[in-house]
Amino acid sequence: MPKKELSHQFIKSLNPPDKPIAYYDEVQPGLILRLSKAGTKSFSYRYQFHGKKRRFKIGTFPGMSLADARDKIHELKTNIKNGIDPQAQREERLHRPEPKKFKYLAEQFKKRHLPTLKESTQKTYTERIDGEMIPAFGNMYIKDISRGDIIELLEEIAFDRGSPYQSNRVRAILSSMFNFGVRREIAEYNPVKLTQPVAKEEKRDRVLAEDEIKRLWNQGFNTVKEPTQSLFKILLILGQRLGETRKMQWDNIEYDKPYKRTYIDKDGNEVKEAFLVDVWTIPKEQTKANRKHFVPLPPAALEIIEELKNNSRYVFESPDKKDQPIKWVHTTFKELAKRAKVDNIRIHDLRRTAATYMAEGGTDRTILGKVLNHKGLAGDNQVTARYDRHGYMDEKRTALNRWTHKLQQIINGKETKIHKIG
Q: Which fold, 210-412?
């Protein structure tokens, strides 16, 4: 077997031989270049392990360069010194069972473990597994789910959606699932054990005073770049959840959408009315309430949104990732709140502030629940749930228009007209 100081140009110039030939590299001991009759050029490493001579194929030229082949042998030599045989390691990988995805773990957990729990617990576990964990991790291999992946989900639930209680429940169930997986040899370890709850379950009642709203808008929101600036403004105007608002899509905004309502007037007569409305529809799968939600857009909100027109699916497109919704806005919010000299404020407090001012403006509890898509406030039953598909649109629009009118007065002191129904 000839020895040769291998070079890229030499390997590239080799033509198919009459019979296979191999060259020993004089630069990197153990590196062999093999040339087949078909012209295939492959790199191998010849080594000894526990006194036995072995040969290990490491790649094919030009997919693997000569420099990469030499670097690979450095790595293999280190492994061998540490008692790891490359050939045995490869054979072990080839015979290793196919890695399982998270949805397989979820299926087994629901099938084998949930029946041992009481019925109400089974229901809440299933809702959280299907509603939170499967969408986040379902198609990921169990071995690839990291501590960082878990923290990202928990923070999204706790901070983006303002639900630390849900975040902590999800964390507890995830830990139970991975412990189950370890016992069944579906998972190698439980990454949840390396995490801590990301938020305390404290009840907040923080509502911004009028002077704080003005400072937050003018000295806070207006000082940050788009689309973050407009995202914060829309959160305060519409009072919707951050996790749902940041995923707003252009396809879900309809202009002059027709709506109808029927009501009984003061004389006992049935009255039918039709009107048009600009509306943002939040798909069922994106809402915390797990139902489609119609949000009428006041002119002030529509004006802000229209200024963001882009070629993305998302109204609030991430500045870093094309055609992806914006994320990680909590740090920006803390910084702008500090500049505006507004203390003890979180993003979710914008929703509570909008709701409070709507209530003070005369919006009753049921309509407020419809605006916020809050099951507890809305007083839903089977009848109202069916009616909600197309109902309450004018009442919701009135509530949001009154709040927008009040908000504009707070911000700039200018008198504005309430956008009338019909």
A: hpI Integrase; Chain A (1.10.443)
